[in-house]
Amino acid sequence: MPMSNRGSGPQSSTATAVSATGLRKSYGDKLVLDGIDLNIPAGSVFALLGPNGAGKTTAVKILSTLIAAGPGSGEIHVSGHDLAADPQSVRAAIGVTGQFSAVDGLITGEENMLLMADLHHLSRRDGRRTAAELLERFDLTAAAKKPASTYSGGMKRRLDLAMTLVGNPRIIFLDEPTTGLDPRSRHNMWQIIRELVADGATVFLTTQYLEEADQLADRIAVLSDGRIAAEGTADELKRLIPGGHVRLRFTDPAVYRAAADALGEATRDDEALSLSMPSDGSQRELRSLLDWLDSAGVEADELTVHTPDLDDVFFALTSDAAAPRQSKETVR
Predict the structure, then answer these.
(1) Hey, which of 230, 245, 277, 314 would disulfide with 329, CB 3.0 to 4.6 Å?
(2) What is the CATH number of the domain that holds 179?
């Protein structure tokens, strides 16, 4: 897996961008958020994972003042402001890019930017300067005079994010920002997010792309059944899930049988001529295993190492079997 740029932005050991205690929300009899806690350091990327309907978008809408939290929710602070007592100050500090583009396809990219500048009460001169700078930053200058309806999906998402940045927000909520984008456009968006964090912004990201969270997030929370089932760094979450193993594959059935006899505790797959042994994938354990195989005279045609990834974490924590009101696991 390519190396990620997690933690590339300036971190603060004391400043908190978003904090919430006991965040709740119901729609009628349907409980969507069942008392979740958040503590997101400034200058970091926080990713909220969960299946469709888990409540990710609801959490974003509450924290960005678009809807009210439910009765009994504890205190919520965004950029140091009390969400309930001072929502206007919260709105002034944040930017939001939702699942669905806010771009108006009937006007040009530049006009979309200038409209946003007007909404932020920028002067005509400052609005044009800000629009020009952001269009250049997002590689949209050449298309600035064209109707936004002619933009590709990736261009529309870049324009959407550029519009979000007109007010220079320090906390940016990105609700599934790369949904529907091709791999190249998705990677371009990742680089933009890294640059925002490098400039000191805090990013609250919801996504269904597990690789996206793995690549970008300093901390990840998995939302399941209205609660945060687990929270930690990507590596910490992976260590929560058992199932790491080394797989030996053979082409000669006789060699396979001899190896299976020598490795009595290995799990056999007679059809695939493969043996699996539990392993944490560490270099020390692999070296020990290889030394043992040499001493036993076992030579496999193929050796592969499987360590749990975020896919395993996601499926284990959000499956129906895992859902019965588990308590939150926080890895420190």
Answers:
(1) 230
(2) 3.40.50.300
